[in-house]
Amino acid sequence: MSPAPSGSLPSLDLLCIGNAIVDVVAPVAEDFLAAHGMTKGVMQLIDAAAAETLYAAMPPGIESSGGSAANTAAVAAGLGARVGFLGKVAADQLGTVFRHDIVAAGVRYPTAPLAAGAPTARCLILVTPDGQRTMNTFLGASVIFSEADLDDDLIKAAKTLYLEGFLFDPAPAQAAFRAAASRARAAGNKVALSLSDPFCVARHRDAFLALLPTIDILFANEAEITSLFETEDFDRAAAAARKAVPLAVLTRSERGSLIVQGAEQAMVPAAPAEVVDTTGAGDAYAAGFLTGYSQGRGLAASGWLGSRAAAAVIGHYGARPRLDLASLAQASH
Fold first, then answer.
1. Residue 6 resides in a domain
2. What's the longest Cα–Cα distance across the chain?
3. 313 near 281, Cβ under 8 Å?
4. Cα–Cα distance for residue pair 271/305, rounded to 1 Å
5. In the 3-class helix/strand/coil scheme, how is 18-31 assigned residue by residue?
6. Rounded mean pLDDT of 156-171?
7. Domain span holding position 288
8. CA 103 from centre of chain
């Protein structure tokens, strides 16, 4: 990529890299999962044929641009952060929908679409009455992301680079992560990593552990952090995270979150909310925390903004808050 003209570089608080996926979210009964051989609350990868079959069997749902890091980017932009996103879609109808949605959310999105080959990715999200989401993901074009898709100007301009663990499956994407992290740190910027899913951690534990020395901020829920450090004890996993990275942000659903930074720590309560659908809760929390962090708020204040953002998501179907996020950000000061 050729350098931008002098003075034209955007100034970003956050640059997210992850799977560019169109989300389809629908409510289902518990027996729907059993009938289709699914384990509740986890993400599984499916092929194109399975995606078509499941989509046809699902009840009507909500369709929108999505993917974990893309959700974080959109929520952070709504909270007032200056945000960019890198992720691959195809040059097809769903790719156009994704691009329009994320740009309309206020996110800078320069990645060129895949001209031929796999179609745009989609995630079929089934929500049971207890609010748990079970994700079935056809990755399509999203995994055709490589070092060639990195935007050096945006990486250098962003205070924090945020990497999505879900994109860690293909080898070219892993290479892109390592290159992006190296370039961000060379520019004096911070690098954040979300572990995304315990099954993802189990598949790539050694590679994630090898990446940790380049990570400044680690995001994980309780299942993910205990899987990473191969223990069933959360406190032991948190202690290991404290030693492994400068800053670890560990979420525990209704028990709130624990944020550890060297000798300092903050325990942040979960914000009150009626749980309808937990889709995107962790993504929104990361958006809130990173927005607060970029504004110089303390650990507890940044965590509380994350909790408020997560609560704004779980009260309805879908991965994006429906309330005025700018007002939420102001109320959290």
1. no
2. 59
3. yes
4. 9
5. CCCEEEEEEECCHH
6. 93
7. 12-328
8. 17
Q: Place 331 in a pLDDT band, splitting at 50, 70 and 90.
A: low
Question: Mind spelling out the 3-state secondary structure of the chain?
Answer: CCCCCCCCCCCEEEEEECCCEEEEEEECCHHHHHHCCCCCCCEEECCHHHHHHHHHHCCCCEEEEECHHHHHHHHHHHCCCCEEEECCCECCHHHHHHHHHHHHCCEECCCCCECCCCCCEEEEEEECCCCCEEEEEECHHHHCCCHHHCCHHHHHHEEEEEEEHHHHCCHHHHHHHHHHHHHHHHCCCEEEEECCCHHHHHHHHHHHHHHHHHCCEEEEEHHHHHHHCCCCCHHHHHHHHHHHCCEEEEECHHHCEEEEECCEEEEECCCCCCCCCCCCHHHHHHHHHHHHHHCCCCHHHHHHHHHHHHHHHHCCCCCCCCCCHHHHHHHCC
Residue entry with tokens 């504004």? 295
Contact criterion met (CB below 8 Å) for 23 and 123? yes
Residue 2 binned pLDDT confidence (cut-offs 50, 70, 90): very low
* Residue 121 within a domain: yes
**CATH number, domain at 118?**
3.40.1190.20
Q: What six digits make up the tokens of 255?
A: 């028990």
* Sequence letter at residue 288: G
Which residues on adjacent β-strands are paired with residue 257? 251, 268
Task: Convert the pLDDT of each residue in 284-324 to its tens digit.
Answer: 999 999 999 999 999 999 999 999 999 988 877 666 666 66
Overall domain count for the chain: 1
Is 333 a domain residue?
no
**Helices 171-186 and 198-211, packing angle to 10 deg:** 50
Q: For residue 327, what pLDDT is reported? A: 72
Write down the pLDDT at residue 230.
97
Look at residue 1 and tell me if it is in a domain. Answer: no
* Token reading at 8: 């034209």
Rounded CA separation 88/114 (Å): 7
Mean pLDDT, the chain, as a whole number?
90
| Residues in the chain, total | 333
What is the distance, to the nearest Å, from the Cα of residue 193 to the centroid of all Cα atoms in its chain?
9
Integer-rounded Cα Rg, in Å, for the chain is: 18
